[in-house]
Design brief:
Transcription Regulator spoIIAA; 4 domains; globular; 14 helices; Rossmann fold; 5-stranded mixed beta barrel; 6-stranded parallel beta sheet
Amino acid sequence: MKFFIRTFGCQMNLNESEIMAGLLINDGFEWTENPDEADIIIINSCSVREKAENKMYGAIGGYGKLKEKNKNLIIGIGGCSAEKERDALLDRFKKIDFVFGTRNVIDISNLVKRAMKGERFADFSDKLNEVNYSIPKRPFSKHHAWITIIYGCNKYCTYCIVPYTRGFEKSRPIDDIINEVEEYNKNGFKEITFLGQNVDSYGKDFGDKKPKLDLLIQKSAQFDSIKRIWFMTSYPSDITDSLIDTIAKEKKAAKYIHLPVQSGSNRILKSMNRRYTKEQFIDLVYKIQKEIPEVTISSDIITGFPSETEKDFEETVDLIKKCRFERINIAEYSPREGTVAHKYFEDNVPKHIKNKRLQYIMNLQKKINLEENEKYLGKTLSIIQEGKAGKNNTYMGRTINNKLIIFQSQEKLNGSFLKVKVNKVSPGPLYGEIIEIINNI
């Protein structure tokens, strides 16, 4: 029987889809990239924003129509939206066969077999204690691996649904993670990315309450095949001096940190239940930029959070100008049912004001991006080719500080280290040409 998985949302969802695919293949099922020929369709959903959730609903409707051609088609829904909606999805969509949670992904084969026997159900059991490095996976890349090291989040930002859909923080044992890194090393993988809703909180639940992401990076750097070590997503107040020092000194550690700030107004940050001030955040950014040469930092911003005034917005603009991020993910505030903000705060910033502020930040960030990218014009940079970037043999790759470069190449060089000379810059990617193919690095 063939299965198809549709993934929405973050890199953790992608990693969980890789795990589900690996488990199903190991159990005799066959992967297909064509939902029309699938006997089993699994939707791995996201609930961070309303737009992502609406995509899930659209997918349910679209795949549900396939049951008119194949009455034996099985449709399962997992991920954060499934955790949030639970049994309501079965009540609302009659063509769904089963719904499962964010903490029992590794039970996917049993869930599918139950559905094949005609059972229609929702299962939100917690199987995280059974997660280990030996679980089969089907990585979607041949040179880069996602590794989830911590599940859940304890921060409870007032706008965020994640703590309610992912549960409390739970770190995987460090030896188990290192065993997984070793497996990827044996298979010739060159890059790994450690994942978590709050990745630099890793290990704080072990007893001594000390984060251990720095130790993970140090241990992982000992493997020869692994050349780059990334991590995401960070929480500002959990970044330690030891982590900064490790990134600065360990040549395999990526010189890039995604550090969401959300707002530059202390009043709004407090209302969001973000546990730092604007001043503390800027000081942290300056410290990172000072101690890690050529580091790049990206961030997240929400415009139009309840009661955000023009003065609050100006504080955010000021922070962006001072921090000069590599990239910003910008979103207009939208209430998420089940959050504190949805329950207690009035969504009182007009839609057109939210959008106006979003557009202003986008234009400001484009200007900053172009100015920062101009520093690379004419330089030759070392990158790993990731894959296609468009038509006509256009490919892309990244530097160790996450600068994206587009160039002419061939598919056989995917996963290869290349030296690329930058001939053109834009507010987005850099553009260049291959100067050298590096066999050993």
